[in-house]
Task: inverse folding
């Protein structure tokens, strides 16, 4: 099989629509129904709901955890309500690859936890790759997506989307079973 990967020169919101359209085309080709989207305030998830028919696709958005509320990064009730009316499912929880109990200890005592090492390894591809893997782990653990079928994950660098992958999910406790099957799009830098 020979497939193209789209590489973006910039990491900004201008890539969002194209990333989602590329993910949609690949979902149609592969018959994938489950789409996981990172979206702090809902704009990327709303764009996904415009391209993916929520009556035919299971769109789950993962928001940043409440631990970042002081930073202004968390989704408001109004933003949540708008997504729910569009048929998008929402999950907010502890990040699978950081910002958990391990982070508290490493901040105080130094060193790195396994999940931080995994996160840093994925960052070598780009921030969106780390987030794609992380959100799939998080949502798989809730049962909102199956772990026995491939899904598409969409994420990005800061705001918007610039990364999309086809992935065979796993639960965080079975992380070694997760498989990145395809890279649909990613930035060359970032």
Result:
């Amino acid at each position: 099989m020979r497939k193209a990967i789209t590489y973006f020169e910039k990491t900004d919101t201008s890539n969002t629509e194209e990333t989602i359209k590329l993910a949609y085309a690949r979902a149609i080709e592969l018959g994938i129904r489950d789409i996981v989207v990172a979206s702090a305030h809902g704009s990327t998830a709303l764009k996904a709901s415009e391209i993916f028919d929520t009556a035919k696709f299971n769109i789950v958005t993962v928001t940043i955890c409440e631990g970042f509320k002081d930073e202004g990064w968390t989704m408001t009730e109004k933003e949540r309500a708008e997504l729910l009316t569009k048929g998008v499912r929402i999950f907010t929880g502890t990040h699978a690859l950081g910002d958990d109990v391990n982070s508290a200890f490493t901040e105080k005592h130094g060193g790195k936890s396994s999940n931080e090492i995994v996160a840093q390894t994925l960052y070598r591809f780009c921030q969106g790759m780390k987030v794609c893997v992380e959100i799939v782990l998080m949502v798989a653990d809730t049962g909102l997506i199956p772990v026995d079928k491939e899904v598409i994950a969409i994420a990005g660098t800061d705001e918007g989307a610039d990364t999309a992958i086809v992935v065979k999910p796993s639960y965080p406790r079975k992380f070694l079973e997760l498989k990145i099957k395809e890279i649909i799009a990613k930035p060359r830098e970032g």
Remarks:
- The longest strand covers residues 179-187.
- The chain has a mean pLDDT of 93.
- The helical segments are 16-30, 43-51, 77-85, 101-109, 114-123, 127-142.
- Strands lie at 6-8, 34-38, 58-63, 89-92, 151-155, 163-168, 179-187.
